[in-house]
Structure formats: C-alpha cells, structure tokens
C-alpha cells in the first residue's frame, strides 16, 4: 500500500521520482528516459492505478531489469493516512498527511448506485469565503499531483481492502464519481489539478467518464476558460449570492471576477463541457442570502438575455461553525427558496448532508489538521454553543423537498 510517511521522506531526500506525480504522457517520457518502450508505461500505469501496487517487485510482467531500475530511481507514494473514520451512514473520511504539518481531508460518500469521492487540491485555501471554515484556516500550500491523485489511489484500494474486493480491473470499482470539492480552490492549483484529472479519465488508470468527474470552483474566470481547453469535466460553481454586493462579502474573489464575467465564463464553458448544464452551489445563510428576492434575482441572473446559463442549483444547508457569525436557514425557508427556483423551471436539489457524526459534512473539517489539539478546542467550543443555542447547533438536519 501507500509508501507514505517516513519512507516517502527518505525517498524524497534521495531524489527518487514519485510515479504518482506523472500523467500518462509523462510516464511514457519517463520510461523513454530509462530506455523502455511506451507500452511499458501503460503496464506500469495499470499496476499503479488499477492494482494499487506500490512495490515494483509485485509487477510481475515487467522485466526484472526494469523493476531493478525503478527500485533505485522511483517510488509510489500517496499521502499517508492520519485518521480513518466511518460514519453510521457509511460515509468514510480520511485525514491524510501532506507533510510540513499539513493535512487534508478525503471523503467517500456511498450511495445506491455510485460511490463518490470528495478530494482536496490545496492545504488550506486563500479565497477565504466567509461561510467556509477551510478559508478561515488560511492558505498553506498547493498539493502536488501525487497528493491529489494519491487520495483517489489510497481511497479506492482502502475501500476494496475493507470490502474484500480484489484489486485490478476485474474487481468491482468502489469509486465511480469524483468531486473536487474538498479543501482548496482547484483552479488556483491548475497544472497539478489538470494532471490528476487526466489520470482519473485515462483508461489505463481509473477510466472515469468526464461526466462523473466534477470540479468545483469559486469562479476563477480565466482558469475556467483554460480548463475548457485542457480538460473539460463537469463544472460546479460556488455561487452563494444573487448579486455582486452580496457576493463580494461572501466570496471575496467576486471583486476580481464579478458575476457578469463569471456567468459569461460559464456559458463559454458549456460549449466544451461533458454535461449541458453548470451546477451552482448555494449555501443557505439565514437572513443573508435566503430571501424570496434573492431567489428571484438568481433566476434573473441565469436567464438574463444573451447570457442564459443552463444550470442546476444545489442548495446547501450551512454547517455553522462558531467563528463564522452566520446561521443556517431553517428548513421551511430552504424549501420555499427551492420552490421559487423550481417554479421557474430550474432543477433544484437540497444537499442531503452526510457523515455528521464524523464531522465530515461539507466545510466541517478545516482547522482539524495542523494541530490536533485544535480539534479538542473546537469540540469544546461547539459544546458551549450547543448549550447556548440548542443541541442542533452545528448539526445538519436532513431536508427533503
Ligand atoms: S468555499 Fe472553497 S474557495 Fe471558498 S474558502 Fe472554502 S475551500 Fe476556498
């Protein structure tokens, strides 16, 4: 399994190449440097990404001479696991070590006909959205390709191990969908994110369809265009506001790329996207962005003449955290808001939250990582707030329409 932690540090000190950092074309080039034919790269890639192999000796159809070469120059190193919790509803959350005191979260959400993995692309985040606990933690660093794809690698084979499913293409695939919605703004870590996406889509790696891989952005307009050119996958946009004044306060990036520009970029993206709609995520904040008027403004925004954006809305009940000073809209308000959008013919869902008991609900995890004692502090604080505001403070209550 993962060559993480101490071994990984030793490997890095010895200038070994982490093969998880390489996309298919780069692996072909790497094999070329070793004097090997391109088909060797495909074999190697299948061993790594389809069989979860981290030991070159296990790669029995590679010539012994190649295995020996690889053993002295390369390694396969995913981030090592700090903690691994499974919720009563089956949601499984890993906290993985990305070095220098940083850790990120990876969450698996099983559903009837699919298994979705939510992965992180940065340690912390510089965008600093007001309702997001990751943003409050600040930005630490960009993840490398191996740390991004390594989350999928680790999760797929950990899940198989737990269920007794054999590795390799014959074993039932556990992860059918990937969403880049964990820590970080993926488009601000563009190259490693795109390289990881290419591996997710490659038939000799995970072979996921573009429609089953979703990148979520807070709206980095030029990079949305670049993604359309380099690796168009399904796109979700963290919208959270119906006008610029409101969005400037909630998603500071809006000051740089205001709504008109963002909507135009979404429209352009759809010409290349594997799906014919954009998903807009909208965090429901009591008294801030949840009025009937806000809903009507949203309809006007996505329907304005000349820049109509075919879309779906995903309303997200806010996960309160003490420092935010924000509250979650109540269920009746969320439903009423959804109804206005649906009456206008816009497909609208309300996110069912998962994994509350393991703190894996969206935006819950930041701050947990750098110093584990902060978890205790947060829990203590949360207990205080629950005493003050009722036992549901900080918990998500499932809402259905
Ligand atoms: S919502 Fe996304 S972009 Fe905004 S601070 Fe959180 S992780 Fe960053």
From TrEMBL:
Annotated residues for binding of [4Fe-4S] cluster: 125, 129, 132
GO molecular function: 4 iron, 4 sulfur cluster binding; metal ion binding; rRNA (adenine(2503)-C2-)-methyltransferase activity; rRNA binding; tRNA (adenine(37)-C2)-methyltransferase activity; tRNA binding
Entry's EC annotation: 2.1.1.192
Gene Ontology cellular component list: cytoplasm
Domain of life: Bacteria
Residues at which S-adenosyl-L-methionine binds: 184-185, 216, 238-240, 319
Domain spans labelled Radical SAM core: 111-357
Subcellular localization, as worded in the UniProt entry: Cytoplasm
Catalytic residues in the record: 105 (proton acceptor), 362 (s-methylcysteine intermediate)
InterPro entries (UniProt xref): Aldolase_TIM, Methyltransferase_A, RlmN_N, RNA_MTrfase_RlmN, rRNA_lsu_MTrfase_RlmN/Cfr, rSAM, rSAM_sf
Gene3D superfamilies: 1.10.150.530, Aldolase class I (3.20.20.70)
Cofactor binding: number and manner: Binds 1 [4Fe-4S] cluster. The cluster is coordinated with 3 cysteines and an exchangeable S-adenosyl-L-methionine.
Cofactors that this protein relies on: [4Fe-4S] cluster
Entry keyword set: 4Fe-4S, Cytoplasm, Disulfide bond, Iron, Iron-sulfur, Metal-binding, Methyltransferase, rRNA processing, S-adenosyl-L-methionine, Transferase, tRNA processing
Coiled coil: none
Transmembrane segments annotated in the record for this chain: none
Protein's GO biological process: rRNA base methylation; tRNA methylation
Catalytic reaction list: adenosine(37) in tRNA + 2 reduced [2Fe-2S]-[ferredoxin] + 2 S-adenosyl-L-methionine = 2-methyladenosine(37) in tRNA + 5'-deoxyadenosine + L-methionine + 2 oxidized [2Fe-2S]-[ferredoxin] + S-adenosyl-L-homocysteine; adenosine(2503) in 23S rRNA + 2 reduced [2Fe-2S]-[ferredoxin] + 2 S-adenosyl-L-methionine = 2-methyladenosine(2503) in 23S rRNA + 5'-deoxyadenosine + L-methionine + 2 oxidized [2Fe-2S]-[ferredoxin] + S-adenosyl-L-homocysteine
Primary role: Specifically methylates position 2 of adenine 2503 in 23S rRNA and position 2 of adenine 37 in tRNAs. m2A2503 modification seems to play a crucial role in the proofreading step occurring at the peptidyl transferase center and thus would serve to optimize ribosomal fidelity.
Note: Reaction proceeds by a ping-pong mechanism involving intermediate methylation of a conserved cysteine residue.
Family the entry assigns: Belongs to the radical SAM superfamily. RlmN family.
NCBIfam families listed in its UniProt record: rRNA_mod_RlmN (TIGR00048)
Name recorded for this polypeptide: Dual-specificity RNA methyltransferase RlmN
Organism: Paucimonas lemoignei
The organism's taxonomic lineage, starting at the top: Bacteria, Pseudomonadati, Pseudomonadota, Betaproteobacteria, Burkholderiales
Gene designation per UniProt: rlmN
């Amino acid at each position: 399994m993962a060559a993480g932690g101490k071994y990984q540090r030793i490997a890095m000190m010895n200038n070994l190449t982490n093969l998880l950092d390489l996309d298919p074309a780069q692996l072909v080039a790497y094999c070329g440097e070793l004097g090997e034919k391109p088909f060797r790269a495909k074999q190697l890639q299948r061993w790594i990404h389809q069989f979860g192999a981290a030991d070159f000796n296990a790669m029995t159809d590679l010539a012994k001479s190649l295995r020996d070469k690889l053993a002295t120059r390369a390694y396969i190193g995913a981030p090592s696991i700090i903690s691994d919790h499974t919720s009563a509803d089956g949601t499984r959350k890993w906290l993985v070590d990305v070095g220098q005191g940083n850790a990120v979260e990876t969450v698996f959400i099983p559903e009837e006909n699919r298994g979705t993995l939510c992965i992180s692309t940065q340690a912390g985040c510089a965008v600093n959205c007001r309702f997001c606990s990751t943003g409050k933690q600040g930005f630490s660093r960009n993840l490398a390709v191996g740390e991004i794809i390594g989350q999928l690698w680790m999760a797929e084979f950990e899940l198989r191990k737990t269920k007794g499913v054999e590795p390799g293409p014959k074993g039932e695939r556990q992860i059918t969908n990937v969403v880049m919605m964990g820590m970080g703004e993926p488009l601000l870590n563009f190259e490693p994110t795109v390289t990881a996406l290419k591996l997710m889509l490659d038939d000799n790696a995970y072979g996921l369809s573009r429609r089953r891989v979703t990148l979520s952005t807070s709206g980095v307009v030029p990079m949305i265009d670049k993604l359309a050119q380099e690796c168009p996958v399904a796109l979700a946009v963290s919208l959270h506001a119906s006008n610029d004044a409101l969005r400037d306060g909630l998603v500071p990036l809006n000051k740089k790329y205001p709504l008109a520009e963002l909507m135009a970029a979404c429209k352009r993206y759809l010409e290349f996207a594997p799906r014919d709609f954009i998903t807009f995520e909208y965090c429901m904040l009591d008294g801030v962005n949840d009025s009937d008027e806000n809903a009507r403004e949203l309809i006007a925004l996505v329907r304005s003449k000349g820049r109509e954006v075919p879309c779906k809305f995903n309303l997200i009940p806010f996960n309160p955290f003490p420092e935010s000073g924000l509250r979650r809209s109540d269920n009746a308000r969320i439903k009423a808001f959804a109804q206005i959008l649906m009456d206008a013919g816009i497909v609208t869902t309300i996110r069912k939250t998962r994994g509350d008991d393991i703190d894996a609900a969206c935006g819950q995890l930041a701050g947990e990582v750098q110093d584990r004692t902060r978890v205790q502090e947060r829990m203590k604080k949360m207990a205080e707030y629950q005493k003050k505001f009722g036992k549901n403070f900080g918990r998500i209550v499932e809402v259905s329409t």
